[in-house]
Amino acid sequence: MFKGFLLGIIVTIVVAVAAGYVTLRFGLIPANADAKPGRLERWAAGTSLDATLRREAPQGPDPVPLTDQNLIDGVHLYSEHCAVCHGTAQGDASASPVAKGEYPAPPQLATAGVEDDPPGYSFWKIKHGIRWTAMPAWKDTLSDQQIWTLALFLQHMDKLPPPAEMAWQQVKN
Ligand code: HEC
Q1: Of all protein residues, whose CA lies closest to atom 22 belonging to ligand 1?
Q2: Mutate which of 78, 81, 86 to test ligand 1's pocket (most atoms within 8 Å of Cβ)?
Q3: Taking the model in full, what pTM does it have?
């Protein structure tokens, strides 16, 4: 009786693995980037990202002080490294050819911003990148100080003081 039960489980597992292999081998799971991510895929990626952020993202406030100069530095870093995918102050209207071709599409941050996110979440995403997307990890290119400076700018993007707003309006991609 128990032996039959065990055999049933093993056969089920073998069939499931074989079905998965055949599905991949015959191209039934598309590999193209010009598709919309499915519900299951979006759920799996989002759930894993949320759980990772809760576990790993630094807590507390941004260690970079909120000054005009730090915000302007953030704008410059963004202009150099991020605008190609995340757009300019024109938001959705500024989506570049690179951004339009990505899967999933990168948010144009002046339209769909992250001002409400805790700064530690933005810090973690910038430092480590986001798996299953085109969001790169910047830890080999930018220092922690520069990443916090970027997080500071992202958190204040929709309420910049005039000198930083002027710099932001000049960013092109
Ligand atoms: C090559 C394209 C690319 C570049 C360059 C890039 N990103 Fe991203 N980024 C993405 C994509 C794609 C996503 C969306 C990931 C997703 O759907 O979860 C993303 C997501 C994000 C998010 C999370 C947005 C949200 O709504 O939760 C933040 C914050 C972010 N990027 C910041 C930056 C910063 C800061 C830079 C520059 C240092 C940067 N990114 C450079 C492609 C890029």
Answers
A1: 125
A2: 86
A3: 0.93
Examine the domain organization and report whether 14 and 89 are in the same domain: no
The total number of structural domains that make up the chain: 2
Q: Atom 30 of ligand 1 has which residue's CA nearest to it?
A: 126
- Ligand 1 atom 36, closest CA: 82
Residues 64 and 17 both lie in one domain: no
Closest ligand 1 atom to 113 CA? 26
Cα–Cα distance for residue pair 123/115, rounded to 1 Å: 13
Upper half-sphere CA count for residue 31 (Cβ side, 13 Å): 5
The parent domain of residue 75 ranges over 46-169
Q: Digits of tens for pLDDT over the chain (173 positions)?
A: 788 999 999 999 999 999 999 999 998 888 899 988 889 999 999 999 999 999 999 999 999 999 999 999 999 999 999 999 999 999 999 999 999 999 999 999 999 999 999 999 999 999 999 999 999 999 999 999 999 999 999 999 999 999 999 999 999 99
Question: Look-up: residue for tokens 């081998």?
Answer: 25
CA distance 126 to 81: 11
